[in-house]
Predict the 3D structure of the following.
Amino acid sequence: MVELFQRIKAATRAPTAEERALDLLELHEARPGITEATLGSWTTATGQSGYDLLVQRVPLHARAVLELGAGNGPLLERLVVAHPELERVIGVDPCAADLALARDRLGDRVELRQERVESLGLEDASVDAVLTHHVFYLFDPPEPAVRQIARVLRPGGTFATAHWTFEAKSHALFAELMEVFARLTCRDAPHFAGWGDQRLFDRDQLATLLRAGGLGQPVIEEHVLAIAEPTQLLCQRLMGFFYSVELQSPETQRELCAEWSALLAATDSGDGLARLDFPFSIVTSEP
Ligand SMILES: C[S@@+](CC[C@H](N)C(=O)[O-])C[C@H]1O[C@@H](n2cnc3c(N)ncnc32)[C@H](O)[C@@H]1O
């Protein structure tokens, strides 16, 4: 079995963005489809996943739509069903294993390209919407990605991304789970300071970055995935979603699972289901 995150673990200083990107790619090659396995299972109180909410942001006049970091294709699959009128649907991801799964589920309907956003080969002003689902905050540094998004969007187009929440503190249990996670990860990997550029997690700095790259003032909405699942299943899904679990030793992972399970089990009101609100943002911006 491949040992994941070797570059980050071996670094005795903060790993570079390129080291993090290469380690992340190896993780996705080893475990394609991991994001859908978690976030694809959960919906808002009105039954919509983050993928569904993004599909709804596609403008009515759209003829071509691009997804960056398309992974194994869950958003693209919803997109072609909801918008059969689209002339061109494109998915971009550097991970060959994820793209192979996407190709299996989407066939020829979608143009899949093995590329990184930083070296996107699409023509200027060629799409009406650019979508990303839990990807944009991984682009590090973000400036080249923002420039590429602004470059490929047509006038009147839309950029929409399902983003890390700006409201974590408003969700007490979620915030507590994250606090436990950060404490345990920091114990095993104190030199690791996080995955993306920290400016992307601040509303004002995000807005400044988008505007400087040729996009407009963002509109930010907060949403919540309302989860009710057996504690162990929920705990395993969360552990599969958060990359940094792989920076923890097996003992620490067991400790994390035990601490998370205790917090989640305390929400079971007798029906065998733990309840968790998992917040996220939808950020939209136009050139
Ligand atoms: C958290 S996963 C999300 C996958 C998919 N959007 C979903 O939500 O199911 C992040 C994805 O971004 C891709 N990715 C990472 N860096 C990228 C880059 N520089 N350009 C394009 N895609 C990238 C990864 O390969 C991975 O498939």
Notes: Residues 24, 28, 35-36, 39, 68-71, 74, 92-95, 98, 116-118, 133-135, 138-139 surround S-adenosylmethionine (CB under 6 Å).
